[in-house]
Each structure stands twice: as structure tokens, then as C-alpha cells.
Amino acid sequence: MTPTFEKLQQLLKQLPGLGYRSAERLALHLLVEQPDRLGPLVEALREAAECVRPCPTCGNLCEADQCAICADARRDHSVVCIVENATEVAAMERAGGYQGLYHVLHGKLSPMRGIGPEQLNLQSLRDRLDRSGFREIVLALSNDIEGEATCHYLCEEVLTGDALTVSRIGFGLPSGSAIVYADATTLRSAFEGRRGLPRDPRSPGEPGSAME
Amino acid sequence: MRIIALNVHGFRNLQDQRLEFSGSTHFMVGANGQGKTNLLEAIGLLSALRSFRVAERKTLVNWNAAAAAVHYRVDHDKQGVSTVEIALRGARASVSLDGERLRSLGDFVGLFPTVALSSHDIEMLRSGPSVRRRFIDICLSGVDFGYLAALRGYHRGLVARNRLLKGGAGAAEVAAFSREMAPSAALLVRKRRACLETLDACFREKYQRFAPGGEHPVLVYSPDVEAETEEEWLRVWRDSLERDRRWGATLKGPHRDDFQFRLFDRAARTFASEGQQRGIVTALRLGQAQWVREVTGERPVVLADDVLVELDPARRRAFWAALDPEVQIFASGTETPRNPEKWEIFSVAQGLICREGSPA
After folding, report:
1. N or C: less crowded end of chain A, CB within 10 Å?
2. In the CATH hierarchy, which fold is given to the domain comprising A3-51?
């Protein structure tokens, strides 16, 4: 292999999800097998690097002054859903059903990886909370120790406004699945997150207290 | 439960083979390093996929094999005859029950209990608290997946919190991880207390066989902090924050729990004789077997690795008197037992296991 090829391979290898072999394959593909793809790819990278940036308001990807979601006046500007990464915004949007705004933290608290509150997109969240009178915050962070600890931190340190309703998305059975196929942990969290079923539209049912 | 047959492939030094067992007492005899303990270890994997010898599963696969598999045919007290297959690849393990792959360890824990006696058990009396905590953790994790999940969660939180304390992170950040640890800590303490209370009763009953009418040893839980609710733990960690910071570690918590054996109101580790100490740990393991049966409704398979020979004749008699006669036991030793008529005997050499007197 030539020195320039190796340099390219080294750079590709540093990208997330790529190992030595895949980096080699990619480099070979672009330079030898399908060189006609190289030009458009380089151009796209250059263009993206120039245009795409985090939305100054919410941290989602954007190319204008604001991202498409923040700029959309038809959305509910009183509800904010907090997520870890921009990919989760895309996933939530594909799922549909949510009409509010987002805030992307660009990570979660992780002492093991050296990610503390300073590394998260929190200052702009504080600014937004001061500026706009939000009604509800939905925490859609992952259901692991670090995600949960980040939720605790947000509740204690950032989401302190009295008028604010803070909720956590539910965890439990995958849609369309039967109870017998769920593992014990999922079933437990589904049980803990159970909700009342309205038997009469005017009086919503209350969950029982069968579990501690 | 009773193991009827076993197939091993690529497991430690054992040669690939199929073994069938009849009756309920099986003795593996052979020189050191031939594979006696490895066979017992393969059987022990049935409880929570854990080896009773090593913490890392990786070492279970033979050096020359990419993967290992153990196939068990088990006569289960409640479910009848079932087949279990455990496949090991590196540190990963997967389980199939009656041909159906289980998706979560939680579906497996507690189904096929085993209790292992080993010559290292005496360390529970002689060594520090970590050995005793490991005993109680394995004991509970083998029958209660909720406990295992809380234990894992607690330790993950603990590592993160300690990292924050060392790095001088803000109080709010430390508190966020304390809050994640608190429910697990409370659950661990509650379950350990309940377990030790029942276990103490089983242990004392078994010990009567070893020292009839004489000594009354007691098993006492000594938690680091008497806190059984989430709120109490949050208070403990809030109050100890400054000290924790100075040390760069969480100084209080269930990770510092201990339990003690007491004899005549004194700690058994200093006052019991060598023979008494062996009697105590053997009775504890037999008590554990009874406890497992009370909790799961299933008779555990008992694995006695090189321990029966170490007992003197009186204590060996006590062992048999204390053992539930219905329990299946796999024992190992370097010499043929003195009561060979009691056992189905297998000889073990270079990883090959043969029933004595029958063609291989």
C-alpha cells in the first residue's frame, strides 16, 4: 500500500463503527473500484461541513438560523422533549405523534467517559427556560444508569421552575408483543410504569398499589 | 432436580464426551489437574451461568476451541425432564431451554439451582468481608434475578460515583448518581437481611448434626449502615459527601457489608478449632442447599469439590446425616472414597471421564 493510501485508511479507521478491515475496504472502494463516487462524496462532505451545524436554540441539526422544528410555528412551543442525540430527534419524528419542540444534549452524564455537565448542551437549555414559558418537559433519555442519573441531575439543577411539569417517557413492553415473551426486567418496568384506564370519561381510573 | 446426562464440548480440559448418571451419588476420582473440578464446574454453570471457581467466564472455553457448549438432560422436580444447552463464546453465554433460546438471563436464574462446597469455603471464616459478601451475593443471585439486577446496577453506579468523587465533580452531579444507587442499595440490604435470617435457621439446624447438643453457632448480618429505604441511603451519602470527597471513594454502602459466624458469643474465626471451622462451613453450605429448596421449591444439585476427604470420620458421618437423602451429589477427590458402595464412581484422567468397571 502507498503512504497516501495508508493515511486515508488511518483517518477512516478513526470514524465510529469502522475497524481496520472496513476502513481498508472503504478506501479501496473509493479509490480503485468506484472512483467516480469519490468526487460527489468529497463535494458532499465539503458542503455539509460548511452548511450543517447545531441549531443555536435546541442543538438539533440545521442549515439556517434555526432548525426546521424550532422554526415551525405550527408546533406546540410550550412542550420540550429532551434527548441525547440528534438521531433521536429523527427517530421521534419518524414515529410521529409528538408535536412539541426538542432539546438535544449531545450526550449524557458519563463519569467513565469523562462527560460532565460542562460537556452537555445545558447552557442553551437554561437560556430557553428563562426566555420561554414552557409548560411541560419530557425526558426521553436512555433507560440506563447514566441516562437516569442525567434525568436526576436535570430535575435538581436545571428544570427548577415551579410551573413546569416534568415527565419521563414510559418503559415497558414492545408494541404488539405478548407478556410471556417479555424478560423479567422489562416486565417489572412495564408494571411499575402502569397507568390507569379510564372507565368513565369523567373519572380516570387510579392504578392500584399491589406492588411496592 | 437431578442431572441424568451431560454432553461437554470444548469445555476447559475436558474431552468432548457424553456422560450418563444413574442414582444420586457420583464420585469423580483422579489425580490433580485431570478435570474433576472442571466437570463439577460445568454442572455448576446451571445456576445463573456462573462458575463457582472464577469470576470470568472467558476462561471456561478450552484454549484450542473457539467455543464451548454443555448440554444437560435434567429431571426437574417441577417441570419433569428438560434439556438445557449452554453455549459459551469468549465471555458471552447463551442458553436454550428445551430447544428454545432464552432471551434474558432473568428467565434462567433460579430454575436449576446448584450448591458448591469447596475447600476454599474455609476462607469465609479466615479471610476478609469480601469473601463473605461474594458468598451472599452468589447465594441470592442464583435464585433471585431482581437481586442480581440490583447488584449490577449498584456497582455500575458506585464506579461512576467514585470516579466523580476522585475528579472533584460538583455536588449535584454526585447526587444524581447517588439517586440511581439508592433504590438498589435499599433492596440489597433488605434482601440480604431476609436471606441471612432464613439461612441462619437452616445453618443452625444442619450444624446440630456436627455438634449435637453442644455448640450453637449463629450467623449474624452486620450491614455497614442500617439503612433499608431509598431516603435513608440518600441521607447517608449526603452526610458522608465531604469525607467521601477527601478519600475519593464512597466509604459507606452495601459494598462494605459483612456477616459473622459467632460461637459462644465470640467470633468463630478466632475461637473455633480447625475441625469446628470445617464443620461450620460445611453446615453453612448444606444449610444453603436447604434454603435454596425453601426459596425455589427445587432441590439443588450439591457439588462437593475435594471436601469430603478433609472431614474427619465423625464430621463425615455428620455430613451424610445432614444431607437431604433425595439430593443428587457430585463429589470429587484424589482417592477412592472409603465407602465405595455408596457411590457411582468415575475415574478422571486427562479430561476423559469413565465409569469404573464399565467400558468407556
Report:
1. C
2. Helicase, Ruva Protein; domain 3 (1.10.8)
